[in-house]
Write a structure and sequence with these properties.
- With 253 residues, the protein is of the alpha/beta class.
- It contains ten helices and eight strands.
- Bound molecules: phosphoenolpyruvate.
- Phosphoenolpyruvate binds at residues 9, 11, 166, 171-172, 210-213, 231-234.
Length: 253
């Protein structure tokens, strides 16, 4: 059976390394008993080396929350895909709405996705509309975002890309999107990908949902929303909540 992918975006949390280690260890122990989920945690980059220090085979993959598209050079404050790869990072979020809010354009997302693929890392390309209008304009916005964000992905590498559909209005909200709407939108995303990369590639593309997922609603979202997993923000640093979420997904798989 295909594992569901659960990505934990810790955002700018927690504030100490000790706490980060505590969360990571708890998630690792839980994940080792859950064969039907593939857990990826994305801590702040300052914690990555410590969390991944043993480099042994782990039930939890390490992701990064951001990256720059250049290899090296005069880019103060930036981190390259190769640096992340050398730390054992396997996934990187690109185009998260919080990064887009701070100026990350589709063009930058496309360059980041390309650079990440070049380094042999899976880009998790985040897309999502800011609001849903009654006339369906949000679908055009979503389509443009997908097309532009994937503009530099070679056809032969599209299977390495993970898409995260995150309606911006649901991120940090109380309630997630209605699962039936998630299902409709994931079909739409596949259609857009199919038009660019072909039907077979679109069929295989992994699509995650993100936005107010927690241990209570997670299995419903995955099952009724018909997605391959979740991108989880707040609940991913709440140890009991995140472990319950993982168990609920594992149990339904
Ligand atoms: C996110 O930051 O990607 C996210 C989905 O946040 P939350 O789960 O807190 O809504």
């Amino acid at each position: 059976m295909k594992k569901k992918i659960i990505v934990g975006n810790w955002k700018m949390n927690p504030t100490s390394l000790d706490e980060a280690v505590k969360i990571y260890k708890a998630v690792k122990t839980a994940a080792s008993r859950l064969p039907y989920v593939h857990v990826v945690v994305c801590p702040p980059s300052v914690y990555i080396q410590r969390l991944n220090s043993s480099r042994s085979v782990s039930p939890v993959s390490i992701g990064a929350q951001n990256v720059f598209f250049e290899e090296d050079g005069a880019f103060t404050g930036e981190i390259s895909p190769r640096m992340l790869k050398n730390l054992g990072v396997s996934h990187v979020l690109v185009g998260h709405s919080e990064a887009r809010e701070m100026g990350e354009t589709d063009e930058i997302v496309a360059r980041k996705a390309e650079a990440v693929l070049d380094a042999g890392i899976h880009p998790i390309v985040c897309v999502g509309e800011k609001e849903r209008d009654a006339h369906g304009m949000y679908l055009d916005i979503l389509k443009e975002q997908i097309k532009n964000s994937l503009a530099k992905v070679p056809k032969k590498l599209i299977h390495q890309v993970i898409m995260a559909y995150e309606p911006v209005w649901a991120i940090g909200a109380k309630e997630p999107m209605e699962p039936s709407h998630i299902h409709e939108t994931s079909i739409f995303i596949k259609k857009v990908i199919s038009d660019i990369f072909g039907h077979e590639n679109a069929f295989k593309t992994v699509i995650l949902y993100g936005g107010a997922a927690n241990f209570r609603n997670a299995s419903d979202i995955v099952e009724k929303g018909n997605v391959d997993g979740l991108l989880v923000g707040r609940e991913s640093v709440n140890i009991p909540g995140f472990i319950e979420l993982l168990k609920s997904i594992n149990a339904r798989s």
